[in-house]
Amino acid sequence: MPTLKNCPECIFKEYDGRILRMEDKLELKLRIEDEKSILKRFGDFMRVNMQLRPTTVQHTLEDIRRFLRRSRNIVSYGSVVRYLKGYLNKAPKTYNQQITSLRRFIRDFLGRGEIISSFKLAPVDEPKECTDLTRAQVKKGFYAQQDNLSKAIYLFTATTGLRKSEILNLLKEDVDFKNRAVKPRHFTRKKRAGVTFFNEEAKEWLMKYLSERKDSDPRLFINFR
Question: Domain residues of the chain, as ranges?
Fold first, then answer.
């Protein structure tokens, strides 16, 4: 169990005991006094200091808000153990997401890495080998779509290989209709999206869908869930 070493007084002076205070000096235990304020600062920290995407910031804040609620605003080795026990029977990726969120909050933001350092990510099973769909299966799926929007997205997804989130983030200006090319708006610190292409049939249904729209929304696809 971690113990307090070289406690940086600056963090307690900065928050002046109103937001964060030392609960126990033998076991490194912190109590969050003003959850709303500290989560706001944490959100700013992730956006500015860590340069995380808005969706990542939102999901991390949701995880930490849940952790603080279950731990009664106590941040300690013990509270992390009790919280993570609730995820032992979850999928490894779900467990690892909690570890990642806790690291951002406890290690990166609060500067108390010793609380979270001993917790390791769960091994993730290798993805099972996928079987390619037959042309007949793809065709059957297409005819099951009810409207031009669904048909356009179906063929666009099948021929570009893009994920749903990548497709729904596209703007009309991201698509080169002449060359049937698209430049996804998916950029992270680990991945940079490249140019991908769609076929003539996908272009045909995409144009049908766009021609029936009367809005000025710059997004390629709207009103799709």
Answer: 23-115, 135-212
pLDDT tens digits, one per residue of 110-121? 999 999 999 999
CA-CA distance, 193 to 161, in Å (whole number)? 12
| Burial (CB count within 10 angstroms: exposed 0-12, middle 13-18, buried 19+), residue 46 | buried
Give the closest residue to 19 by CA, choosing from 109, 122, 114. 109
Q: Which CATH architecture has domain 135-212?
A: Orthogonal Bundle (1.10)
Rounded to a whole number of angstroms, the distance between the first and last alpha carbons of the chain is 46
User: Residue 2 corresponds to which tokens in the numbers above?
Assistant: 């971690």
Structure tokens at 199: 């076929």
What burial class does residue 149 get, using C-beta atoms within 10 Å of its C-beta: 0-12 exposed, 13-18 middle, 19+ buried?
buried
What's the whole-model pTM score?
A: 0.56
CA 144 to chain centre: 31
Number of H helices, E strands in the chain: 10, 6
Instruction: Judge whether 82 and 69 are in contact, CB under 8 Å.
Output: no
Please state, in angstroms and rounded to a whole number, the distance separating the CA atoms of residues 225 and 217: 16
pLDDT digits (tens, 9 = 90+) for 59-104: 999 999 999 999 999 999 999 999 999 999 999 999 999 999 999 9
